[in-house]
Amino acid sequence: MTLTVGPLTADTGRKVRGTVPVDLGPVTAGLPVTLVDGVRPGPRVVLTGGVHGGEFAGVDAAARLAALLTPEEVRGQVVLCPVANPPAVYQGRLGTSPLDGVNINRVFPGDPDGGPTERLAAWLFAHLLPGADAYADLHSGGIDETLTDFVGYRLTGDAALDATARGMAHAVGYPDVVLGTDATGGNSHAAAARRGVPAILIETGQLGDRDPATTATLLDGLFRLLRHLGTLDPLPDPQPRPTREWVWAASVASPATGLWYPETGRGEDVAEGQSLGRLVDPADGREHKVTAPATGRLFYGMHGLPVATGAELAAIATPYTATQPDPPDPHNPEVQ
Ligand SMILES: [Zn+2]
Q: Which residues of 11-32 are buried (b: 16+ CB within 10 A; e: fewer)?
């Protein structure tokens, strides 16, 4: 079946690469897209990197995978977009776009009549996701963010869809899988799940890491995912990796503008009420104590010193078992 994204078209057995222009209003962005249309039938898998600026491992891994995959080895189709948000990636290097200050991963599925970032989100959803059988969005802890690697997905209430997403999340092989108990919000994987596309978020690396070893970790996870989905042939002796499942318990927003002095780090276990750090007003030296609103493990946190009111300082998850009822007061932090 012919695979088309914008002006790019790949017929069965072909791989096509190029830049797709996307009209954002004030500017036209050029999105790098690779289409691999395998010689054998199979699922359509969509991978995006560079939804945020300053998160390099996903951009690197998606670009490398786009160069590596061949139609001869692929079952079905693979759509790769290593830089899904060029303004944020090339000019911004942070989570927000320099065009309008909008974090695209809060506004999916976007609005074709909205501002530049909403238009870009709408374009991505209109052109990459239709017909997709699986979607993975590749993120990292940004330049100002600490993070321990994890894979995320959301529960939608559709048992079959949730089971597919869960299987994808565990197939990546990272030790930690963190789920959200609903699919609300503007994250790409949540909005995709609401459209019925099994979707995961893969978070790899932190603090602007571009170490080849970090990219290798992500590439290994992507190959595991593609073998799980049937896109690539299975290994003769697959080695499943044990995974633990967590559920988001709390997101900690900065109560004020100030200087952030964290006292805890990624991967640490914290108790409710424990101090996470101090926020110091540079005008008068007054301190706000920031405490953990829940007991659990810190999966990511703010590394930047100056922070604005509302900036996300930490995200905490607690162990999850599928048999337990919905946890009390579930809350999904808007995961980067
Ligand atoms: Zn991100």
A: eeeebbeeebebebeeeebebb
CA of residue 142 to ligand 1 center, whole Å: 7
This prediction's pTM: 0.94
Ligand 1 mean position, distance from CA 51 (Å): 6
Instruction: Note the pLDDT tens digit of each residue in 291-319.
Output: 999 999 999 999 999 999 999 999 999 99
Report which residue type is found at 261: Y
Contact call for residues 63 and 82 (beta carbons, < 8 A)? yes
| Digit-coded pLDDT (tens) for 65-105 | 999 999 999 999 999 999 999 999 999 778 899 999 999 99
Q: Are 3 and 128 in contact (CB under 8 A)?
A: no
Q: What is the rounded end-to-end Cα distance, in angstroms, of the chain?
A: 34
